Amino acid sequence: MQSRLLRPSFFAALAAVTVLALPLRAAAEDVTVFAAASLGTALDRIAAEWTAETGNTTTISYAGSSALARQIEQGAPADIFISASTDWMDALETGGEIRPETRRDLLGNTLVLIAHGTGAAPVEIGPDLDLSVLLGDGRMAMALVDSVPAGVYGKAALTALGLWDSVEAKVAQGDNVRAALTLVEQGEAPFGIVYATDAAASENVTVIGTFPAETHAPIVYPAAVTAQSQSPVAKEFLGYLGTPGARAIWLDEGFTVFD
């Protein structure tokens, strides 16, 4: 009888010892990422895979690279910055806002002309394209042409082709490239200039032409850990963006991946 009465206490003690002997799983960590708006679809997929594999989480803020860079300059708590152009990363590096040794060129992209809806007829993008006539009374949706990379690339391409002056007054500018995409998706602008990856993410636009690469600076996405980052997993997540699994997602979404 006495042994039976003691047995529950014995098993409780044994369970406690067993739990203490098990290896403790590290508490999940979070990394805050400031990323160019055009990365949204692909980066969300990659972040979900990273969380599934590691248990760590991400908080991702998407916007135009210019807006994000300025927020970091003003002390916004970002651990990683992924820009859609080298210019904004250069500005942060010059200001001491990133850790230069972590900087890497991650991705590339192409610039395309899109039309609202499906089945729009293709055009040949060149100096002979009468883009003003194509637009008619409609608007050309673009990201901010003086600050957001997609808008800067677009303006440079149109300028190189001699088309900018004829359409400047018809440009409807959005805060970022996804805002420009939305204008065309919803039919508020019949045409727009976005990245090929943005067009691929929408079922309600048609790519009608690709801008020649020589008409604008190379579209490069650099990434780096910020100087202020305190996250113990920031470098880990940055490295994960170049793993085979992440690479497959980038390619599936239409990006060029740098080695």
Describe the structure.
- This protein is of the alpha/beta class and 259 residues long.
- Helices cover 40% and strands 21% of the residues.
- The protein has eleven helices and eleven strands.
- It has a six-stranded mixed β-sheet with strand order 2-1-3-10-4-11. The chain has a five-stranded mixed β-sheet with strand order 7-6-8-5-9, with helices on both faces.
- Helix 2 packs antiparallel against helix 11 (244-252) and helix 3 (65-73) packs parallel to helix 4 (86-94).
- It is globular, with a radius of gyration of 24 Å.
| Overall geometric form | globular
Helix content estimate: 40-55%
Summed over residues and divided by their number, the pLDDT gives a mean of 91
Q: Please give the oligomerization state of what you see.
A: single chain
- Which sequence of SSEs, written as H and E, runs from N to C? HEHEHEHEEHEHHEHEHEEHHE
Query: Which strands sit side by side, in order, in the main sheet?
Result: 2-1-3-10-4-11
